[in-house]
From TrEMBL:
<keyword id="KW-0378">Hydrolase</keyword>
<dbReference type="Pfam" id="PF02545">
    <property type="entry name" value="Maf"/>
</dbReference>
<dbReference type="InterPro" id="IPR003697">
    <property type="entry name" value="Maf-like"/>
</dbReference>
<protein>
    <recommendedName>
        <fullName>Maf-like protein DDB_G0281937</fullName>
    </recommendedName>
</protein>
<dbReference type="InterPro" id="IPR029001">
    <property type="entry name" value="ITPase-like_fam"/>
</dbReference>
């Protein structure tokens, strides 16, 4: 079966294995390109604004790098953070029909109104997971899709809620020692085989919690094209 995007290319701006699997299961072929930005320098008061701002910042970084490589190879060595929006627009008009949507999933966890990004240590990860035990966490994620040929960017956010049974200390210890949850917003990895049995109720979709909501991604790709 031919991939959905046989007439255009997709760059996934994330190294997340979960996001790669979701996008592949949707029938798309893609390459991965992570953005070199300082996420901590981008701060917003609420989770919805933060995830959209982070996704847009990564998209802009990738736009500049990709366009520089295609049109001005020597300029590709410059720091994308110092490039102007004018140079990006100039390059767009010289792509001659080259369609390149960029799909990025960004998420944060919210617990009692406090935004949680990736745990900074094992101790913080343990604190996060123990707080979910017998309780609830909200996951807010965003997707931003850019069509470089047309200069169109579409983005939106989605919210899901996860309610947990009590999580035994030995399960939390195993999750911490494995280490993978240190790379996940809020230390919350719904699909992990150690976590999944303790999920009581999910309001929303599993793919949204995993970082790339299918229906929203599909909708934004269609709108950008």
């Amino acid at each position: 079966m031919a991939p959905k995007n046989s007439s255009f290319k997709i760059i996934l701006g994330s190294s997340s294995m979960a996001r790669r699997k979701i996008l592949a299961d949707m029938g798309y072929e893609f390459t991965v390109m992570t953005a070199d930005i300082d996420e901590k320098s981008i701060r917003k008061e609420n989770a919805e604004e933060l995830v959209v701002a982070l996704a847009e910042a990564k998209c802009i970084w990738q736009d500049i790098v990709l366009l520089s490589h295609r049109n001005h190879p020597m300029k590709a060595r410059t720091n994308p953070r110092n490039c102007s929006s004018h140079s990006v627009n100039y390059c767009r008009h010289n792509l001659f029909g080259y369609i390149l949507p960029t799909s990025i999933g960004i998420e944060v966890a919210v617990y009692q109104g406090i935004i949680r990004e990736k745990p900074s240590s094992k101790e913080e990860a343990r604190h996060f997971i123990k707080s979910y035990s017998g309780g609830q966490a909200t996951v807010v994620g965003s997707v931003v899709v850019t069509n470089l040929t047309k200069g169109i960017r579409k983005g939106a956010w989605e919210r899901s809620e996860v309610y947990f049974h009590d999580i035994p200390d030995e399960v939390i210890d195993s999750l911490i020692e494995e280490g993978i949850i240190l790379n996940v917003a809020g230390g919350l990895m719904l699909e992990h085989p150690l976590t999944l049995p303790f999920v009581d109720t999910l309001i929303g979709t599993a793919d949204s919690v995993m970082g790339l909501p299918r229906s929203l991604t599909e909708k934004l790709i269609e709108e950008a094209l």
